[in-house]
Predict the structure.
Amino acid sequence: MTKHIDNKIFKASWTYDEAPEGTDHIQIKKQYDLYIDGRFVNPVKGIYFDTINPSNNEKIASVAESSFEDVDKAVKAARKAFKSWSGLTGKERGKYIFRIARLIQECAREFAVIESLDGGKPIRESRDIDIPLAANHFFYYAGWADKLMYAFPTRDPKPIGVVGQIIPWNFPLLMAAWKLAPALATGNTIVLKPAETTPLTALKLAEIIQDSGLPKGVVNIVTGAGETGAEIVNHPDIDKIAFTGSTGVGKYIQKAIAGTRKKLSLELGGKGANIIFEDAAIDQAVEGIINAIFFNQGHVCCAGSRLFIQESVAELVIEKLKDRMNTLIIGDPLDKNTDIGAINSIKQLKTIENYIKIGVNEGGEIYQPECNLPKKGNWCAPTLFINVSQSHRIVQEEIFGPVLAIQTFRTIEEVIDKANNTPYGLSAGVWTQKGSKIFHLTQKLNAGVIWANTFNKFDAASPFGGYKESGFGREGGLHGLKPYLKF
Ligand code: NDP
């Protein structure tokens, strides 16, 4: 329904024509093998699984499932390549990484479409955010490859060795870039596993890596489910695990490698606080709230999923927010107008729907705009809850979907206490016109990343990572080199 605020009508009265991105320029194979030792090889056991398009639940391709034998072959190839790769000068290593960055740019359109097909995210996001940021990450770390002695003067940094990297499904290519680029720049060799539901852009990246002429065995990409990840974690010849995923699996990995020589960095879940003060630019803040929670269907570890609004402006902000939610376009990820795409998998949709039920059963007041969700595929309307408190499960637990829990506050001390009252410590946002307030809060909030008057902005030069149950280690910036070096 159209609402009136300050005599303005926020609900758009125009309609959009369809604007689908073309798919004729992309090449998707029927079947994907494993990328080991510079070649695509069949899995030893010959087992393949389907990767599914979440916007219609139709099969896109068959993907090889790695067993222990495949992981072992990949680790052996990485071990063999380590000596010569780590022995190259930084300048030589940098050349390969620059080449990969440029090849990603050349294939950007193809990557964007495959990312949206395989993962469900709007093409606007994969085209304008995921893929450019992934290329940027390679460019950035290519620049560091020959400057490690300046990054860590007098410390003589050395690569760690063979690194096992395990990534989730929410930013498939970007997470691969976050993992691969710093590890390569520092002279490590790699066995990487993408998530089971989104392997295609990592496999496309493997094709690019092959085209780049990167020496064989330096990067190996093995696909499979959690069991394949566990084979990497438990392999005796891996020197370090870099993991991004849920806190539950992160804890399992920490236990699994306890007492071994393996190093570990963990980028885990979050429940970010987004704090709106009464002196904030309210319309900008409303846009920021939308971006904080509905970007990538809310499948974002640093999403601003807990909103705190100062009491004096709460009613106005919530009304404007509901109006803005009415204008969001939910549907075909390949349509350039789409704001919210498909939920990544049926399993994740069930998790989100269950949390929405929990929110209602615990007494939260739910709001969802009227929207015609497509009949086929996995869809969830953008959702907000008011009348919730710190003890509600939807306030405490990570939902990883487009669901926002809203609370109000009166004083700065109150909102700091509430924002920090979570097992996580990954991200936060502060909206105010007062620089002093921003600096006060950034010192008091326990979060690895804090945005001021914006949200969900990423840059290769800026470190990212968490505190508490959100993990440890940083990705991005000079800090992102450290987890891949020994001194
Ligand atoms: P999971 O932890 O379930 O999976 C992450 C990766 O680990 C996947 O590749 C998965 O394989 C693999 N895996 C699953 N079980 C094991 C195991 N026992 N041993 C080794 N590897 C395993 O997370 P999701 O894929 O569900 O991703 C969502 C989570 O990731 C959220 O909690 C989110 O907050 C977090 N995340 C954190 C980020 C950060 O930077 N802090 C960034 C992005 C996401 P498969 O998928 O094939 O089963």
Q: What stands out?
A: The longest helix spans residues 123-144.
